Amino acid sequence: MIPGAFTYHRPSSVAEAVAILVSHGDEARPLSGGHSLIPMMKLRMAAPEHLVDLGGIADLKGITDDGDTITIRAMTTQHELIASDLLAQKLPIIRETSLLIADPQIRYVGTLGGNVANGDPGNDMPALMQCLDAAYVLTGPEGDREVPARDFYEAAYFTTLAPDEILTAVRIPVPPAGHGYAYEKLKRKVGDYATAAAAVVLTLDGGTVSFCSIALTNVADTPLYAQEAGEILTGSTLDAETVARAVAAAEEITEPASDGRGPAEYRTKMAGVMLQRALARAATRAAS
Amino acid sequence: MSDIEQIPVTMTVNGKKVQRFVEARTLLIHFLREDLNLTGPHIGCETSHCGACTVELNGMSVKSCTMFAVQADGAELTTIEGMANADGTLSALQEGFRQMHGLQCGFCTPGMILRAHTLLKENPNPTEEEIRMGISGNLCRCTGYQNIVKAIQYAAAKLNGTEFQEAAE
Amino acid sequence: MNDMTPTREQREAALEGMGCKRKRVEDIRFTQGKGQYVDDLKLPGMVFGDFVRSPYAHAKITRIDASEALKLPGVIAVLTAEDLKGVNLAWMPTLAGDVQMVLADGKVLYQNQEVAFVVAENRYIADDAIQLVEVEYEELPVLTDPFKSMDADAPVLRPDLDGKMEGAHGPRKHHNHIFTWEVGDREETDKAFSEADVTIKELISYHRTHPSPLETCQCVASMDKIKGELTVWGTFQAPHVIRTVASLLSTIPEQKIHVIAPDIGGGFGNKVGAYPGYICAIVASIVTGVPVKWVEDRMENLSTTSFARDYHMTAEIAAKNDGTVTGLKVHVLADHGGFDACADPSKWPAGFFNIVTGSYDFPAAHLEVDGVYTNKAPGGVAYRCSFRVTEAAYCIERAMDILAQKLDMDPADLRMKNFVKAEQFPYHSALGWEYDSGDYHTAMQKAMDTIGYRELRAEQKAKQEAFKRGETREIMGIGVSFFTEIVGAGPSKNCDILGVAMFDSAEIRVHPTGSVISRMGTKSQGQGHETTWAQIIATEIGIPAADIMVEEGNTDTAPYGLGTYGSRSTPVAGAAIALASRKIRNKAQMIAAHMLEVSEYDLEWDVDGFQVKGNPQARKSMKEIAWAAYHAPPPGMEPGLEAVSYYDPPNMTYPFGAYLCVMDIDVDTGVAKTRRFYALDDCGTRINPMIIEGQVHGGLTEAFAIAMGQEIRYDEMGNVLGASFMDFFLPTAVETPHWETDFTVTPSPHHPIGAKGVGESPNVGGVPAFSNAVNDAFKFLGSTHIQMPHDAWRIWQAAKELGAHG
Predict the structure, then answer these.
(1) CA nearest B24 in A: which residue?
(2) Chains contacting A with at least 3 CB pairs below 8 Å?
(3) Residues of A in contact with B24 (CB under 8 A)
(4) A100 contacts in C (CB within 8 Å)?
(5) Among the three residues A132, A154, A173, which one is the final residue of a domain in this structure?
(6) Separation in Å, CA of B67 to nearest CA in chain A
(7) CATH number for the domain that contains residue A194
(8) Of the candidates C736, C653, C693, C679, which has an alpha carbon nearest to the alpha carbon of residue C528?
(9) Of C65, C257, C481, C746, which is most buried, counting CB atoms within 10 Å of its CB?
(10) Domain C8-32+504-647 classified CATH 3.40.50.620?
(11) Catalytic residue chosen out of the listed positions C100, C237, C460, C535
């Protein structure tokens, strides 16, 4: 398992990185944490001729509080997400999710940008970003553009990111204080992708759901924003009957692969179970 | 091969500065094992699951099979070869693994000890659960982990200057 | 005596002999990264070999074109079957009496089969060259289901066997049939079934898995053309056997072959056999004249170098209404893949599967095993067990639970009722074994009392009621497993490998200063032989273990032995060590008698020397005796103090144990959580309790993995699924349960120190304990048997089929 040869680039600015991508087109790939790309290269399933290491770009690091939104620069690692007091206070679901990604070593180098940009349906952050209605900042030769996470994913490994663009930041609207949240992930072992996982953010007003956003991981070839399920629950008291309808609506949009994690039928059902459990846990965390 | 571009890299490995030329695709694990003859870190899975290749890089535990040597240019690294005390005696972790029978075939041990080393720096008093989570990126096929957990607890106690109390079985 | 004279207890403690928790000497180097594993080896001029492999499971090869690869700078050679034919090595014999392609000869029989061997300056160039070798395949119909192997229209997998109706183990009845092995008395057994009050019958499958040590299989071969000598460093659990095989295949005289097994990163049965990588590295070194290294990657390891299990066992038990068993009938369909490369003693095509009567007194039994070919990787190694013993233990332990269910008896009570009784040992089983010793009732009772078995059953019943009332979605299972292993192959009357009897050996040399070097025919892969072998010697000859160096793995220096697998090291080499030690002690006694000017019959052994009976002040320590042996031996006696022993055991040993597993299962996800696992092992005399506990922890963890999800799967096209550590279930510290260990001691009567071997017991007993726990949990919903592995989705599916999802 040896990667093919490539030319290594280590730009120190985003502009420089974009320029390298522009000049090499499809033959260049940005490298962030590398724990998706490098194994693919070792299997010779990916053979970029130019590798653009984003690790030297200081500007791609950091988490900033913009008031209503929080901006996380793309090369911020999962380890840094877990350690962030700001996120712990305002977006605790990010810490909860990060702790369920891969293992400690990989979290030191795995980045938010890499996790959301490469389009692997097994990654956890894409569904979470859809749940949070985050936007991705894509920087290309023409400058920045913003794409909602909910519109970014087209198919497995296919996204709206152009070959000469770099995902440079993620902007996340801060949910209201007192929101309930949960990320429930069923996996075979530490380090595995989800058999199914569900992200939930909701607010309660006197026991009634005033807002509910749901997204699902690894039960289709893209992350799934379960809009209808969220709408069904909004205005409800999370009574069993409504939850069952929402779970059914969420299961309805899944289209999982059958693999070692289980047949499609099982994974669909697990998406439902994870959602149900995430809802219950989110509700206990929400201020009423 | 002469026509392959060789890139200069400089690192501080186990306190010593090293400079070499490498091919861009040279994996860090091969750089350590083949170029620097540091054969303590091992290759177990090549897909970043087993952790046998774990080393410390700028204070982080990383899997050196899934990183290019060029990415580590300028970095400070510690491998198992740099773990013993300055006087050559076994460090608390190395001693803990021996005292608690935390190893058998020894193949996972260098990665396991390096991971535990960084874990204890970040969390000097880990609970059993924190230790188990903390070493969950390292596979061991021999021990069933129970004695590895004890080995790390032993080291934590020793580093904290307290007596290691083995949990009652 | 003055106050400084150590007491007897102090002298004993100073030896660190048998029974003490001696810390391991190996750990000094391993904890410092100074182990010397094969891939750590670097020789001047060494090059690297790697395989082009087949993407297809069954295909003809119509063309191999290596010209582009050979143009790549740094590529030295590309070997194919045609090249190997020149040295008569395109095929090699297997341990099971079959032949196996080294490189694909005209066709491939399983995905990832070795097609060509690329030799290049380093592993990077070798990998580049692999991409450039063009191979044209013509796909053939694929056979992956062993139940269809012997269909009339099943594809012919082995045209090389065309018309050969006699195999290594008797007649073949179909072109994909390998052997039928029959043991026991069919008539007697049929009679027991016709007279039975109750019978059960169940197909119990033990899925295909893989030993997967953390270090893969690898070697370095170095041919010195001037001297005509070949040196091979490799991951060999049985280095001497490799040397003999290498000599027979290469025609290089055996004294000119040096096989060295350095430190090994776990074996678990994976490193017993000879693989194409070893052969190709050797041939490549002979061809190129430089050392050639071959290191397989993890996918290659999981998908080609051996598998384990893949036994489909139909078990039937006949019993009386009171639960007394009267007969056992088992048929096994054994899936051996494309070649029969099982690593069993040569006369045993299904290993010691005839231990399948287990711990129970079956008056009649009959067993038949059919081996068949499929388009899967060859192998059939004993993954942390004696040959096919874990399959047998799983079969009988599941079947006993099913019988208990049918009789509405508690599974522990049914076992107690049918155990071979302590007074029946040595016990002759209906399938031909002589169990050496055992006290099953005591062990089982201790296990049940310790874990609070009856209370757990009451709790389980209450939980079942709560589940039925809809108050909980969690159910509880209690897995009972009582296993009897058969290890220590083996008596030469029963066991050989390619004609070499399965003895083992020890050579011990006491140096003039009283220190020792000793060498054995075994090879540790993590078992800690350097520590424990020294403990045996320490106790036997009274020299501190710290002064005894143990060396294994170098065939030039170690006496011939059959290696380490099947828990044979302690039963066989352990005995050789004790006997060689005793030879030394006997000579020492004569020397001491001369030194003390008494008759040797006036001397008695005392911890670390000889003393005159009735006058303990007059004594000579072994250290003093050793010096005398070299500078003043008794007149007429050869100087020196050393001994060799080759031990051919009179019988196998039969370790046993009682394992109990308490499991909670989330019916809605299928996730099973092990609440408690209690393992009581009886391995006879205990040499180092610390190491025994470590072995049990490790074996249980492997058993947990196998039972709960570890599987090598194939799709219908013969694609091997999940051959990486993402999918192949190796639990981390998070999933692995906490282990509780316990023991009883029933020494083996025929072993010099009474030890039986323990390394594999936890795998053998653990798998049924986990599986029985899962099955036990679902019994109350009407389930009889749920197949392994019990990963979450399969448990969920079983729950669904039983109506547990409403």
Answers:
(1) A8
(2) B, C
(3) 5-8, 51
(4) none
(5) A173
(6) 7
(7) 3.30.390.50
(8) C693
(9) C481
(10) no
(11) C237
- Domain ranges for chain B: 6-82, 92-160
CATH 3.30.365.10 fits C308-489+652-801, yes or no: yes
CATH number for the domain whose boundaries are C38-140+216-264+271-303? 3.90.1170.50
Residue A158 neighbours by CB distance under 10 Å: 11
- Residue B166, pLDDT above cutoff 80: no
Same domain, A114 and A19: no
Same domain for A241 and A259? Answer: yes
The pLDDT of residue B167 is above 70: no
Mean pLDDT score across all residues of chain B: 95
CATH classification at residue A85: 3.30.465.10
Question: What is the per-residue pLDDT across C573-612, written as a single tens digit (0 to 9) for each?
Answer: 999 999 999 999 999 999 999 999 999 999 999 999 999 9
Does B168 have pLDDT greater than 90?
no
Say whether the ipTM exceeds 0.95: yes
**Residue pLDDT, tens place only, C448-458:** 999 999 999 99
Name the residue of chain B whose CA is nearest to C24's CA: B98
CATH 3.20.20.140: does it fit domain B92-160?
A: no
Average pLDDT, chain C: 96
Residue B1: per-residue pLDDT: 42
**Confidence at residue C1, expressed as pLDDT on a 0 to 100 scale:** 47
A-B CB pairs within 8 A amount to 80
Tokens representing A229? 């399920």
- Give the architecture (CATH level 2) of B6-82: Roll (3.10)
CA distance C411 to C416: 9
Output the pTM of the full model.
Answer: 0.97
